[in-house]
Amino acid sequence: MSSIVEVQGLRKVYDDGFEALKGVDLSIHKGEILALLGPNGAGKTTLISTLCGITTPTGGSASVGGHDIIGGYRAARAMIGLVPQEVALEPFEKVINTVRFSRGLFGKKQDDALVERTLRQLSLWDKRHNQTKELSGGMKRRVLIAKALIHEPQVLFLDEPTAGVDVELRRDMWQVVEELRAQGVTIILTTHYIEEAEAIADRVAVINKGEILLVQDKATLMQQMGRKSLRIELAEPITAVPEALSEYELELSDDGQSVTYHYDTRGQSGTGITRLMQALAQAGLHLRDIHTRQSSLEEIFVGLVREGAA
Protein backbone atom coordinates (compact mmCIF):
# COMPACT_ATOMS: atom_id res chain seq x y z
CA MET A 1 0.00 0.00 0.00
CA SER A 2 1.43 3.37 -1.04
CA SER A 3 2.10 6.09 1.54
CA ILE A 4 0.91 9.65 1.22
CA VAL A 5 2.51 11.05 4.39
CA GLU A 6 6.08 10.13 5.38
CA VAL A 7 7.66 11.29 8.64
CA GLN A 8 11.27 10.46 9.52
CA GLY A 9 13.06 11.45 12.72
CA LEU A 10 10.85 14.52 13.20
CA ARG A 11 11.85 16.65 16.18
CA LYS A 12 10.51 19.82 17.74
CA VAL A 13 12.33 21.60 20.56
CA TYR A 14 10.94 24.90 21.84
CA ASP A 15 13.02 27.85 23.00
CA ASP A 16 12.60 26.87 26.66
CA GLY A 17 14.18 23.49 25.92
CA PHE A 18 10.96 21.48 25.96
CA GLU A 19 11.18 18.64 23.43
CA ALA A 20 7.65 18.12 22.11
CA LEU A 21 8.60 15.63 19.38
CA LYS A 22 11.46 13.18 19.88
CA GLY A 23 12.39 11.71 16.53
CA VAL A 24 8.95 10.66 15.31
CA ASP A 25 8.79 8.09 12.50
CA LEU A 26 5.42 7.54 10.86
CA SER A 27 4.14 6.35 7.50
CA ILE A 28 0.48 7.00 6.64
CA HIS A 29 -1.16 5.03 3.86
CA LYS A 30 -3.14 6.66 1.09
CA GLY A 31 -6.88 6.39 1.70
CA GLU A 32 -6.74 5.13 5.29
CA ILE A 33 -8.15 6.52 8.51
CA LEU A 34 -5.42 6.71 11.13
CA ALA A 35 -6.38 7.43 14.74
CA LEU A 36 -3.63 9.27 16.61
CA LEU A 37 -4.16 8.65 20.31
CA GLY A 38 -2.33 10.05 23.29
CA PRO A 39 -2.89 11.86 26.60
CA ASN A 40 -2.86 15.64 26.90
CA GLY A 41 0.62 16.98 26.16
CA ALA A 42 1.66 13.84 24.29
CA GLY A 43 2.59 15.73 21.10
CA LYS A 44 -0.49 15.07 18.94
CA THR A 45 -1.24 18.70 18.12
CA THR A 46 2.47 19.55 17.70
CA LEU A 47 2.84 16.74 15.16
CA ILE A 48 -0.21 17.86 13.20
CA SER A 49 0.84 21.53 13.35
CA THR A 50 4.28 20.64 12.04
CA LEU A 51 2.94 18.60 9.13
CA CYS A 52 0.53 21.42 8.26
CA GLY A 53 3.29 24.05 8.24
CA ILE A 54 2.07 25.91 11.32
CA THR A 55 5.09 24.90 13.40
CA THR A 56 8.65 24.63 12.06
CA PRO A 57 10.43 21.37 12.97
CA THR A 58 13.79 21.39 14.71
CA GLY A 59 15.04 18.30 12.94
CA GLY A 60 14.09 15.34 10.78
CA SER A 61 11.95 15.43 7.65
CA ALA A 62 8.39 14.94 6.48
CA SER A 63 6.57 14.92 3.15
CA VAL A 64 2.97 14.94 1.97
CA GLY A 65 2.27 13.43 -1.42
CA GLY A 66 6.00 13.45 -2.10
CA HIS A 67 6.32 17.18 -1.34
CA ASP A 68 8.69 18.13 1.46
CA ILE A 69 6.90 20.19 4.12
CA ILE A 70 9.77 22.71 4.09
CA GLY A 71 11.21 22.72 0.58
CA GLY A 72 7.87 22.10 -1.12
CA TYR A 73 5.69 23.85 1.40
CA ARG A 74 3.08 25.27 -0.97
CA ALA A 75 2.49 21.98 -2.79
CA ALA A 76 2.39 20.02 0.47
CA ARG A 77 0.02 22.46 2.16
CA ALA A 78 -2.33 22.47 -0.86
CA MET A 79 -2.89 18.75 -0.33
CA ILE A 80 -3.89 19.23 3.32
CA GLY A 81 -7.13 20.17 5.03
CA LEU A 82 -7.03 20.98 8.74
CA VAL A 83 -9.83 21.15 11.29
CA PRO A 84 -8.10 22.62 14.37
CA GLN A 85 -9.16 22.35 17.99
CA GLU A 86 -9.62 26.10 18.37
CA VAL A 87 -12.57 27.84 16.76
CA ALA A 88 -11.12 30.96 15.09
CA LEU A 89 -13.46 32.61 12.59
CA GLU A 90 -14.03 36.16 11.35
CA PRO A 91 -17.10 37.02 13.49
CA PHE A 92 -18.74 39.50 11.09
CA GLU A 93 -18.28 37.53 7.86
CA LYS A 94 -21.08 35.48 6.35
CA VAL A 95 -20.71 31.70 6.40
CA ILE A 96 -20.77 31.31 2.63
CA ASN A 97 -18.13 34.00 2.09
CA THR A 98 -15.90 32.46 4.76
CA VAL A 99 -15.95 29.14 2.93
CA ARG A 100 -15.47 30.71 -0.50
CA PHE A 101 -12.50 32.69 0.78
CA SER A 102 -10.81 29.55 2.09
CA ARG A 103 -11.05 27.97 -1.36
CA GLY A 104 -9.58 31.10 -2.93
CA LEU A 105 -6.59 31.03 -0.56
CA PHE A 106 -5.41 27.88 -2.32
CA GLY A 107 -5.77 29.40 -5.77
CA LYS A 108 -8.82 27.32 -6.63
CA LYS A 109 -11.39 28.62 -9.09
CA GLN A 110 -14.77 29.63 -7.76
CA ASP A 111 -17.10 26.64 -7.57
CA ASP A 112 -20.51 27.60 -6.22
CA ALA A 113 -21.89 24.11 -6.77
CA LEU A 114 -19.17 22.61 -4.56
CA VAL A 115 -19.72 25.29 -1.92
CA GLU A 116 -23.44 24.53 -1.85
CA ARG A 117 -22.86 20.77 -1.73
CA THR A 118 -20.37 21.12 1.13
CA LEU A 119 -22.63 23.42 3.15
CA ARG A 120 -25.61 21.15 2.64
CA GLN A 121 -23.55 18.13 3.64
CA LEU A 122 -22.80 19.85 6.96
CA SER A 123 -26.33 21.21 7.45
CA LEU A 124 -25.06 24.78 6.98
CA TRP A 125 -26.93 25.78 3.84
CA ASP A 126 -29.77 27.43 5.77
CA LYS A 127 -27.17 29.42 7.71
CA ARG A 128 -25.13 30.51 4.69
CA HIS A 129 -26.06 34.19 5.00
CA ASN A 130 -25.58 34.34 8.78
CA GLN A 131 -22.56 36.03 10.29
CA THR A 132 -20.39 33.48 12.06
CA LYS A 133 -20.82 35.30 15.38
CA GLU A 134 -24.53 34.41 15.21
CA LEU A 135 -23.83 30.66 15.16
CA SER A 136 -23.79 28.20 18.02
CA GLY A 137 -20.55 26.50 19.00
CA GLY A 138 -21.52 23.35 17.11
CA MET A 139 -22.38 25.31 13.97
CA LYS A 140 -19.05 27.14 14.14
CA ARG A 141 -17.34 23.76 14.27
CA ARG A 142 -19.22 22.78 11.11
CA VAL A 143 -17.90 25.93 9.40
CA LEU A 144 -14.34 24.90 10.29
CA ILE A 145 -14.95 21.53 8.67
CA ALA A 146 -16.37 23.18 5.54
CA LYS A 147 -13.32 25.48 5.34
CA ALA A 148 -11.00 22.46 5.60
CA LEU A 149 -12.79 20.55 2.84
CA ILE A 150 -13.54 23.27 0.31
CA HIS A 151 -10.20 23.16 -1.54
CA GLU A 152 -10.61 19.38 -2.02
CA PRO A 153 -7.60 18.16 0.01
CA GLN A 154 -6.16 14.67 -0.31
CA VAL A 155 -5.16 14.54 3.36
CA LEU A 156 -7.49 15.72 6.12
CA PHE A 157 -6.30 16.33 9.69
CA LEU A 158 -9.03 16.35 12.34
CA ASP A 159 -7.62 17.59 15.64
CA GLU A 160 -10.25 16.74 18.28
CA PRO A 161 -13.02 17.67 15.81
CA THR A 162 -15.93 16.59 18.00
CA ALA A 163 -14.67 17.84 21.37
CA GLY A 164 -17.50 19.63 23.13
CA VAL A 165 -19.99 19.35 20.28
CA ASP A 166 -23.47 17.89 20.21
CA VAL A 167 -24.31 14.29 19.36
CA GLU A 168 -25.93 15.28 16.05
CA LEU A 169 -22.79 17.01 14.79
CA ARG A 170 -20.65 14.09 15.90
CA ARG A 171 -22.86 11.71 13.91
CA ASP A 172 -22.78 14.02 10.87
CA MET A 173 -19.02 14.34 11.17
CA TRP A 174 -18.42 10.61 10.99
CA GLN A 175 -20.81 10.30 8.07
CA VAL A 176 -18.73 12.92 6.24
CA VAL A 177 -15.56 11.04 7.17
CA GLU A 178 -16.91 7.80 5.69
CA GLU A 179 -17.87 9.60 2.47
CA LEU A 180 -14.41 11.15 2.20
CA ARG A 181 -12.74 7.80 2.77
CA ALA A 182 -14.85 6.38 -0.08
CA GLN A 183 -13.46 9.18 -2.27
CA GLY A 184 -9.88 8.19 -1.40
CA VAL A 185 -9.13 10.98 1.08
CA THR A 186 -6.61 10.09 3.79
CA ILE A 187 -7.78 11.06 7.28
CA ILE A 188 -5.70 11.52 10.42
CA LEU A 189 -7.83 11.83 13.51
CA THR A 190 -6.98 12.78 17.06
CA THR A 191 -9.69 12.26 19.61
CA HIS A 192 -10.41 11.75 23.30
CA TYR A 193 -13.49 9.74 22.35
CA ILE A 194 -11.63 6.48 21.93
CA GLU A 195 -14.82 4.61 21.03
CA GLU A 196 -14.95 6.76 17.88
CA ALA A 197 -11.45 5.70 16.89
CA GLU A 198 -12.40 2.11 17.60
CA ALA A 199 -15.45 2.44 15.35
CA ILE A 200 -13.94 4.09 12.26
CA ALA A 201 -10.12 3.85 12.25
CA ASP A 202 -8.16 1.42 10.07
CA ARG A 203 -4.97 1.80 12.09
CA VAL A 204 -4.05 3.23 15.47
CA ALA A 205 -0.93 5.19 16.40
CA VAL A 206 -0.21 5.83 20.07
CA ILE A 207 1.99 8.80 20.96
CA ASN A 208 3.22 9.76 24.43
CA LYS A 209 5.84 12.29 25.56
CA GLY A 210 6.71 13.09 21.94
CA GLU A 211 7.39 9.49 20.91
CA ILE A 212 5.38 7.02 18.85
CA LEU A 213 4.85 3.97 21.05
CA LEU A 214 3.06 1.86 18.48
CA VAL A 215 1.46 1.91 15.03
CA GLN A 216 -0.76 -1.05 14.33
CA ASP A 217 -3.77 -2.23 12.41
CA LYS A 218 -6.68 -1.78 14.80
CA ALA A 219 -8.04 -5.30 14.53
CA THR A 220 -4.58 -6.85 14.86
CA LEU A 221 -3.80 -4.63 17.83
CA MET A 222 -6.90 -5.71 19.69
CA GLN A 223 -6.28 -9.35 18.82
CA GLN A 224 -2.65 -9.27 19.93
CA MET A 225 -2.94 -7.07 23.00
CA GLY A 226 -6.57 -7.22 24.11
CA ARG A 227 -7.36 -9.44 27.04
CA LYS A 228 -10.70 -11.09 27.51
CA SER A 229 -12.74 -11.15 30.68
CA LEU A 230 -15.10 -13.85 31.93
CA ARG A 231 -17.72 -12.60 34.38
CA ILE A 232 -19.27 -15.39 36.39
CA GLU A 233 -22.59 -14.73 38.07
CA LEU A 234 -23.05 -16.77 41.24
CA ALA A 235 -26.23 -18.46 42.40
CA GLU A 236 -25.54 -17.22 45.94
CA PRO A 237 -23.51 -14.13 46.92
CA ILE A 238 -20.19 -14.50 48.72
CA THR A 239 -18.30 -12.11 51.00
CA ALA A 240 -14.80 -13.16 49.88
CA VAL A 241 -13.13 -15.27 47.19
CA PRO A 242 -12.18 -18.67 48.66
CA GLU A 243 -8.47 -19.12 49.29
CA ALA A 244 -8.46 -22.19 47.03
CA LEU A 245 -9.17 -19.87 44.07
CA SER A 246 -6.40 -17.34 44.79
CA GLU A 247 -4.24 -18.41 41.82
CA TYR A 248 -6.94 -17.16 39.42
CA GLU A 249 -6.84 -13.59 40.80
CA LEU A 250 -10.61 -13.29 40.63
CA GLU A 251 -12.22 -9.88 41.12
CA LEU A 252 -15.26 -9.97 43.39
CA SER A 253 -18.08 -7.54 42.65
CA ASP A 254 -19.19 -5.13 45.38
CA ASP A 255 -22.46 -6.99 45.89
CA GLY A 256 -20.73 -10.39 45.99
CA GLN A 257 -22.96 -11.68 43.21
CA SER A 258 -20.21 -12.24 40.63
CA VAL A 259 -16.49 -12.77 40.08
CA THR A 260 -14.45 -11.73 37.04
CA TYR A 261 -11.58 -13.71 35.55
CA HIS A 262 -9.13 -12.07 33.10
CA TYR A 263 -7.29 -14.22 30.58
CA ASP A 264 -5.15 -13.97 27.45
CA THR A 265 -6.26 -15.97 24.43
CA ARG A 266 -2.62 -16.15 23.28
CA GLY A 267 -1.46 -18.01 26.39
CA GLN A 268 0.53 -21.13 25.54
CA SER A 269 -1.04 -23.04 28.42
CA GLY A 270 -4.57 -22.19 27.35
CA THR A 271 -7.09 -19.85 28.92
CA GLY A 272 -7.40 -21.76 32.19
CA ILE A 273 -11.19 -21.53 32.02
CA THR A 274 -11.75 -25.30 32.24
CA ARG A 275 -9.60 -25.58 35.36
CA LEU A 276 -11.35 -22.54 36.84
CA MET A 277 -14.78 -24.09 36.37
CA GLN A 278 -13.63 -27.26 38.11
CA ALA A 279 -12.08 -25.23 40.94
CA LEU A 280 -15.29 -23.23 41.42
CA ALA A 281 -17.29 -26.45 41.75
CA GLN A 282 -14.79 -27.89 44.22
CA ALA A 283 -15.02 -24.67 46.25
CA GLY A 284 -18.79 -25.16 46.50
CA LEU A 285 -19.71 -22.17 44.30
CA HIS A 286 -22.67 -22.63 41.96
CA LEU A 287 -22.97 -20.65 38.74
CA ARG A 288 -26.04 -18.82 37.50
CA ASP A 289 -24.63 -17.36 34.25
CA ILE A 290 -21.37 -16.42 32.52
CA HIS A 291 -20.43 -13.55 30.17
CA THR A 292 -17.27 -12.88 28.13
CA ARG A 293 -15.96 -9.46 27.07
CA GLN A 294 -13.10 -8.33 24.84
CA SER A 295 -10.85 -5.53 26.09
CA SER A 296 -11.69 -2.20 24.50
CA LEU A 297 -9.26 -0.03 22.58
CA GLU A 298 -9.37 2.42 25.50
CA GLU A 299 -8.08 -0.21 27.93
CA ILE A 300 -5.30 -1.17 25.51
CA PHE A 301 -4.40 2.51 25.02
CA VAL A 302 -4.19 3.17 28.76
CA GLY A 303 -1.97 0.14 29.20
CA LEU A 304 0.40 1.25 26.44
CA VAL A 305 0.72 4.77 27.86
CA ARG A 306 1.45 3.40 31.32
CA GLU A 307 4.14 1.14 29.89
CA GLY A 308 5.66 4.05 27.95
CA ALA A 309 5.73 6.19 31.09
CA ALA A 310 7.40 3.50 33.17
UniProtKB/TrEMBL annotation:
Matching entries from InterPro entries are given as: AAA+_ATPase, ABC_transporter-like_ATP-bd, ABC_transporter-like_CS, ABC_transporter_ATP-binding, P-loop_NTPase
Record key words, sorted? ATP-binding, Nucleotide-binding, Transport
The protein's matches in CDD domains, at most eight in alphabetical order, are given as: ABC_DR_subfamily_A
For the ABC transporter domain, which residue ranges apply? 5-234
Please name one Pfam family that this protein belongs to.
ABC_tran
Highest taxon of the lineage: Bacteria
Picking any one GO molecular function of the record gives:
ATP hydrolysis activity
Q: What name appears for this protein in its UniProt entry?
A: ABC-2 type transport system ATP-binding protein
